[in-house]
Write a structure and sequence with these properties.
Number of strands: 11
Number of domains: 2
Shape: globular
Structural class: alpha+beta
Number of helices: 14
Largest sheet: 5 strands, mixed
Order of helices and strands: EEEHHEEHHHHHHHEHEEHHEHEEH
Strand order of the largest sheet: 1-5-4-3-2
Radius of gyration: 26 Å
């Protein structure tokens, strides 16, 4: 799945950059983040394999061997999802789309784009890469498993006997190969923002030439698929047999949760495009706060609180020295400091340095700024020109602009929408 610098200090708050999860490094120039919810996937897979499938295949295996093999399979499944997302990032970079981060979480993975693809061909190529790689990976695993197993006589009356002779590696590959094939096929379902939905949007975009309308149509398809999954999940929970999915409370709950996630993601994608259309090419310097209140680096934290934070509504204050931006200090930075230290510690000690901040230039588009605000989970971004602060763009300023635009633009699938949601 694809969706459009983090601080070195962990408690940067609204001033800093970063998000939930554990950054594990960079692969092919892309930061990889493991969301804590990924633990759920690991446990579900490991427990279901260790408590059901593997003991059925290998009744003579001990508990340690069963659960170590199950844990290895769960880890390799997560690696398979990572490879799927990396294919999006690598193909996207080749097509001129920057993908700074991949996040793996409970519902799979997400390649976070910096902006939308500029052409339908780029959208199509990037979206198709993930399912193609997953399908190829699944077939390759089955081929390798066949090579490891070698010639084997299968008794049609007792297929379990052949499975019992498999080793841990072959067992994992025989399970994981079809799982990757199913992953690739599921992502080809034409439900936005699944890869298949993005392929569908690329086709609509190429035919009609209207990106916003194509997004609206693809998102509507995504919501239809989402509600179908929710309905199937509810039916399974009630004990009904659903074609393809089967029945059962736990599988039904999982299918319904996936549908709920897809519905929310489709809605969010549609709203984002509507907001981008409303903002158009609006430059940052049109709505940024010029000459924001700033503080000096040698100010004590106590003076910062008494003279600024208690008397003003600003969430964060740029830290300047002779007009040069040094960093940003915010409420969370102060909260992280023990009260008895506030009289001695200075702003420079607790601020987020400029090197750890996302910054804008006055000519940047506000739509890009909105993407960065969401990506870095911050409420404001400094606007810098020639290493000097010229303004501060806040989330509130963007929402105010969108509220003013509401009703002033036409309402239609392919036209701009004013909205106060972001």
């Amino acid at each position: 799945m694809t969706e459009p610098t983090r601080p070195t200090r962990p408690a940067a708050g609204p001033a800093g950059i970063g998000g939930r999860g554990l950054p594990i490094g960079r692969i092919a120039g892309v930061e990889v983040v493991l969301d804590w919810s990924l633990i759920i996937i690991f446990l579900l897979v490991a427990l279901s394999l260790g408590g059901g499938l593997l003991p059925a295949w290998h009744p003579d295996w001990g508990v340690v061997k069963v659960f170590s093999t199950a844990a290895a399979a769960a880890i390799l499944l997560i690696v398979s999802i990572l490879v799927h997302e990396l294919s999006h990032a690598i193909v996207g970079r080749w097509l001129g789309i920057r993908v700074p981060r991949i996040t793996l979480f409970v519902f799979g993975g997400m390649a976070q784009l910096e902006g939308e693809p500029r052409t339908w061909q780029a959208e199509l190529g990037m979206a198709a890469a993930g399912p193609i790689v997953s399908l190829a990976l699944g077939v390759a695993m089955l081929v390798v498993a066949g090579w490891i197993i070698g010639p084997m006589e299968l008794d049609p009356a007792d297929p379990a006997e052949a499975l019992a002779r498999l080793g841990p590696v072959a067992s994992v590959l025989i399970w994981l190969g079809p799982v990757n094939i199913v992953l690739g096929l599921f992502n080809l379902v034409p439900g936005f923002p699944l890869d298949g939905g993005r392929v569908l949007r690329a086709i609509f975009w190429g035919i009609g030439g209207d990106h916003a309308r194509a997004t609206a149509l693809a998102a509507a398809g995504g919501q239809a698929v989402a509600w179908l999954l929710i309905g199937c999940g509810v039916a399974m929970i009630l004990g009904l047999q659903v074609p393809v999915f089967g029945t059962g409370t736990l599988p039904g709950l999982w299918i319904a949760l996936i549908g709920w996630f897809l519905n929310n993601a489709a809605l969010a994608s549609r709203r984002k495009v509507q907001v981008d259309v409303t903002l158009g090419d609006l430059p940052v310097d049109r709505i940024m706060r010029r000459d924001p209140v700033n503080v000096g680096p040698e100010l004590t934290v106590e003076e910062l609180i008494d003279g600024y934070m208690l008397r003003r509504s600003e969430r964060a204050f740029p830290v300047l020295e002779q007009g040069r931006l040094l960093g940003l200090v915010c409420l969370d930075d102060v909260r992280d400091l023990e009260p008895e230290q506030r009289a001695e510690r200075k702003v420079v000690d607790i601020m987020t340095p400029v090197a750890d901040l996302a910054v804008l230039s006055p000519a940047d588009a506000v739509s890009l700024a909105l993407t960065r605000l969401a990506e870095h989970q911050v409420n404001q971004l400094p606007v810098v020109q020639n290493d000097r602060l010229v303004g501060l763009l806040t989330r509130e300023a963007i929402l105010r602009w969108l509220a003013l635009c509401k009703g002033a633009v036409a309402d239609g699938p392919g036209k701009a929408h004013g909205t106060t949601e972001s």
